[in-house]
Write a structure and sequence with these properties.
Helix content of chain A: 25-40%
Number of strands of chain B: 10
Shape of chain A: globular
Protein name (chain B): Lipoprotein-releasing system permease protein
Number of helices of chain A: 7
Strand order of the largest sheet of chain A: 6-7-8-3-9-10
CATH superfamily of chain A: P-loop containing nucleotide triphosphate hydrolases
CATH class of chain A: Alpha Beta
CATH architecture of chain A: 3-Layer(aba) Sandwich
Order of helices and strands of chain A: EEEHEEHEHHHEHEHEE
Largest sheet of chain B: 6 strands, mixed, barrel
Distance between the termini of chain A: 21 Å
Strand content of chain A: 25-35%
Bound molecules: adenosine-5'-diphosphate, magnesium ion
Pfam families (chain B): FtsX, MacB_PCD
Shape of chain B: elongated
Structural class of chain A: alpha/beta
Number of helices of chain B: 15
Number of domains of chain A: 1
Oligomer: heterodimer
Number of strands of chain A: 10
Order of helices and strands of chain B: HHEHEEHHEEHEEHEHEHEHHHHHH
Membrane topology (chain B): Multi-pass membrane protein
Distance between the termini of chain B: 28 Å
Strand order of the largest sheet of chain B: 2-3-8-5-7-6
Subcellular location (chain B): Cell membrane
Strand content of chain B: 15-25%
Largest sheet of chain A: 6 strands, mixed
Helix content of chain B: 40-55%
Structural class of chain B: alpha+beta
CATH topology of chain A: Rossmann fold
Number of domains of chain B: 2
Transmembrane segments (chain B): 24-47, 281-304, 324-353, 373-392
Chain lengths: 223, 408
C-alpha cells in the first residue's frame, strides 16, 4: 500500500548549509502491516515520516500511496490525500486547545465536510469511547493529562478511517502504563480494521511487539 | 458546534475567543475609532440638517427678480472709443414683466414644487405715536405658505391673510405696542395708506427679521405700492433642494428674469459644509487606516502564535483556502464586532452631547439624527477594513509549511 523508491531529502537546498538528511530510502509497507521505525536521534525518522505523510516533499525519489505516485500531484490533491487516507499522531502539540476533546476528534471530518452534523458527533463519541475517554469528551486539551491527550489524538487520527496511520513517538513522553495503553489501542485498531501503521519509537520493548522493525541510521535503512 | 456555521467560521471564532485579551483590546481600539466616526458624522449631519431646515422653511429655494436695470450710453458708434461713466439707475419698485406667464412656466417644470408671486416693498408701519419702517410682503397665502411656513412660526393669532389682515413679526409688535386684533396703519412712500387688522404674530427665529417682517395679502400690497396686478418677485420651492441652482439657471435661460437659488445666496454655508465634509472624510480614512493596521498587527501575531494549530489543521487535511478563510473571517469579525461596539459608543456619546450642548436660549444645538444607514454603512466599512487588513496575515497563515508549523 506504501512504496518508497530512492527517497532523498536535503534541507536548505541551494544554501551553503545544504545537507542531505535522507540518502535514498527504499521501503515497502503492506496493507495492514504494523511497523516500527527506530533509529538514533537525528537519523531522519521524523523527516521520513513527514515525507510519507505528505506534509513534506522529498528532494528526489518516488512515493506511491495505494499505487499512486505522489510527487507530481498538485497541492489540493495532496491535501485531500492527507485528509482522507492518512492519520497523524504527533509527539507534541497534539490537540487544538481552543476545542474540546470531542471537537478535536470531529475536526478532520468537520474540516472536510465543513458543517458539523450529528453523525460526525456520533462517530467522534464512538472513537472517544474506544480510547476510553467518553467521560472527558467535553474537556478542553489543557484539562487533560498527557496520556489522555495522546489518546484523543489517536482517536482523531482514526476519525476519517485512514488507510495509513503515522505516529511520531506517540508514547515518547508518557509513563510506561500510559504508553502501553496507547500502544494497545493502536494495535487493536490495526487488527480490527486492518489499518496500516508506521510508528516511530525509541521504546525497543514496544518495537519488538510490532510486525516488523525498520531501522534508520544516518539517513539510510540499516539491515 | 453550531451546525449552521461552516468550519472556518467556527475555528475563527474559537481562535478569537481563546485569545481573549488580544481580541478585547483590538475590539476596544476599533470601537473607539468607529465611535468617533459615528459621533462626528451624525453631529455634522444634525447641524447641517438644522441649518437646512431653518433656511429652507423660511426662504424660497429660488427667487425670481426683475432683471437689473442697466444704463447704456446713448451713442454707440463703432470705432469711436468713449469713456462713459455709466451711473446705475435707482432701482424702483417694478413688477416682473409678464409674471403670470413665468409663474405658469415655472409651475410646469418637473423639479418645481411650488411657485408663488410676491409683491414687496418698504412701508412705514405706525400705531399711535410709534412708527417703524418695515418690509411689507404681499403674498398669496395658499401658495406662499408652502414656501415659507408662516403658520409654523405663528406664536399668537392666526395665519390668516384676507385683504384686511396683516401678520407681523413679534419684535415689531413689541416695538409698536401692538397685539393680535389691533389696527395697524401702513403708509407707502407715495403717501398711500391702509389700515389693517393684525391677525397673527410670527417668530422667524431672528431678531432683525422679527422687527421688519410684515405679511399682507398680495392685492393689498399691490394697491399700496401702486403696482396693480404686478409682482416684484416670484418665489419657488423645488423638490430636490440641491437642484435649486440648476432650476434657477434653466429659468434664467428661458425668461427675462434674474433667478437666485438658495445655494447661491448661502454660498458661505456650502463652503463651510464642504470643508467639514472633507475633514470628516479625511478623519474617516485615517481612522480606517489605523484600525486596519491594528487588526493586521493582532492577526500577524496570532498567525505566529497559532502556527502549531495551523500545522495540525493542515496535517488533518484542512486546505490552504480554508486556513486563509479562518484568518480573513477573524479580521472581518473583529471589524464587524468593533463597529457594533463603536456604533453604540458613538450613539451614546451623541445622546449625551445632545443633552448637554444647548444653544443660548436652551434649545438643542443640533437635532439627534441616528440614521440606520450610518450604522449599516459603518458596519460594512469596518467589516471590509477588517477583511482587507486580514489578507496579509491570512496569506501568511495559508502559506505556512505544515512541517515547519508543527515543528514550531
Ligand atoms: N528543517 C530543517 N532544516 C535543517 N535541518 C533539519 C531540519 N529538520 C531536520 N533537520 C536535520 O535533519 C536530521 C534528521 O532530523 P529528524 O528527521 O528530526 O531526525 P529524528 O526524527 O530521527 O530525530 C537532523 O540532523 C536534523 O538536524
Ligand atoms: Mg524525530
Amino acid at each position: 500500500m506504501l512504496r518508497l523508491e530512492d527517497i532523498r531529502k536535503s534541507y536548505n537546498v541551494g544554501l551553503p548549509s545544504q545537507t542531505e538528511v535522507l540518502h535514498g530510502i527504499d521501503v515497502t509497507l503492506q496493507r495492514g502491516e504494523f511497523v516500527a521505525l527506530i533509529g538514533p536521534s537525528g537519523s531522519g525518522k521524523s523527516t521520513l515520516l513527514n515525507i510519507i505523510g505528505l506534509l513534506d516533499r522529498a528532494t528526489s525519489g518516488r512515493l506511491f500511496i495505494n499505487g499512486k505516485e505522489t510527487s507530481s500531484l498538485p497541492e489540493h490533491e495532496i491535501t485531500r490525500l492527507r485528509g482522507h487516507s492518512i492519520g497523524f499522531v504527533f509527539q507534541y502539540h497534539l490537540l487544538i486547545s481552543a476545542f474540546t476533546a470531542l471537537e478535536n476528534v470531529m475536526m478532520p471530518m468537520w474540516s472536510d465536510r465543513r458543517f458539523a452534523s450529528a453523525d460526525m458527533e456520533t462517530r467522534a463519541r464512538e472513537l472517544l469511547g474506544e480510547v476510553g475517554l467518553a467521560a472527558v469528551a467535553g474537556n478542553k486539551a489543557n484539562n487533560m493529562s498527557g496520556g489522555q491527550q495522546q489518546r484523543v489524538a489517536v482517536a482523531r487520527a482514526l476519525a476519517m478511517k485512514p488507510d495509513l496511520v503515522l505516529a511520531d513517538e506517540p508514547t515518547g513522553n508518557l509513563d510506561t502504563a500510559s504508553a502501553d495503553d496507547v500502544f494497545a489501542l493502536l494495535r487493536r485498531e490495526n487488527t480490527r480494521h486492518g489499518t496500516t501503521f508506521l510508528l516511530v519509537t525509541h521504546n525497543l520493548d514496544l518495537a519488538r511487539r510490532c510486525d516488523r522493525i525498520i531501522k534508520v541510521v544516518d539517513g539510510r535503512i540499516s539491515p | 458546534m453550531n451546525p449552521l456555521l461552516p468550519f472556518e467560521w467556527v475555528v475563527a471564532i474559537r481562535f478569537l475567543r481563546e485569545g481573549r485579551m488580544q481580541t478585547l483590546f483590538i475590539l476596544v481600539g476599533i470601537a473607539i475609532g468607529v465611535g468617533v466616526i459615528v459621533f462626528m458624522t451624525a453631529m455634522l449631519a444634525g447641524l447641517e440638517q438644522n441649518f437646512l431646515k431653518r433656511v429652507l422653511t423660511s426662504q424660497p429655494h429660488v427667487q425670481l427678480l426683475p432683471p437689473d436695470q442697466i444704463a447704456r450710453p446713448l451713442r454707440d458708434i463703432p470705432g469711436v472709443i468713449e469713456d462713459p461713466v455709466v451711473q446705475r439707475p435707482s432701482q424702483r419698485i417694478i413688477s416682473i414683466d409678464q409674471w403670470r406667464k413665468i409663474v405658469a412656466a415655472a409651475r410646469a417644470m418637473p423639479d418645481v414644487a411650488e411657485v408663488s408671486p410676491t409683491t414687496a416693498g418698504s412701508v412705514l408701519a405706525s400705531r399711535g405715536d410709534a412708527s417703524r419702517s418695515v418690509t411689507m410682503s404681499g403674498v398669496e397665502p395658499e401658495t406662499y405658505f408652502n414656501i415659507v411656513r408662516v403658520p409654523d412660526y405663528i406664536v399668537a393669532g392666526q395665519p390668516r391673510l384676507t385683504s384686511e389682515d396683516v401678520i407681523i413679526g413679534t419684535e415689531l409688535a413689541k416695538d409698536l405696542g401692538a397685539s393680535v386684533g389691533d389696527k395697524l396703519n401702513l403708509r407707502a412712500a407715495s403717501g398711500a395708506t391702509r389700515v389693517l387688522t393684525i391677525s397673527g404674530l410670527v417668530d422667524l427665529g431672528n431678531k432683525s427679521a422679527n422687527q421688519r417682517t410684515t405679511f399682507v395679502a398680495l392685492r393689498t400690497a399691490q394697491s399700496l405700492l401702486g403696482i396693480i396686478g404686478g409682482a416684484t418677485t416670484i418665489d419657488i420651492t423645488v423638490r430636490d433642494i440641491y437642484a435649486a441652482e440648476t432650476v434657477a439657471q434653466e429659468i434664467e435661460a428661458a425668461q427675462r428674469v434674474e433667478a437666485d437659488s438658495w445655494i447661491k445666496t448661502n454660498a458661505q454655508f456650502f463652503t463651510a459644509v464642504q470643508a467639514q465634509k472633507n475633514t470628516n472624510l479625511l478623519i474617516r480614512v485615517f481612522v480606517a487606516l489605523s484600525v486596519a493596521f491594528g487588526i493586521a498587527a493582532v492577526l500577524v501575531v496570532s498567525v505566529i502564535q497559532r502556527s502549531k494549530d495551523i500545522g495540525i489543521l493542515r496535517a488533518m487535511g484542512t486546505r490552504r483556502g480554508q486556513v486563509l478563510a479562518i484568518f480573513l473571517v477573524q479580521g472581518g469579525v473583529l471589524g464587524f464586532l468593533g463597529s457594533l461596539a463603536g456604533s453604540g459608543l458613538g450613539a451614546a456619546a451623541l445622546v449625551y452631547w445632545h443633552a448637554m450642548a444647548r444653544q443660548a436660549d436652551g434649545s438643542e444645538l443640533f437635532p439627534l439624527i441616528l440614521e440606520q444607514s450610518l450604522f449599516i454603512e459603518t458596519a460594512l466599512l469596518a467589516t471590509l477594513t477588517g477583511l482587507v487588513a486580514a489578507t496579509i496575515p491570512a496569506v501568511r497563515a495559508a502559506d505556512l509549511d505544515p512541517v515547519v508549523a508543527i515543528r514550531g
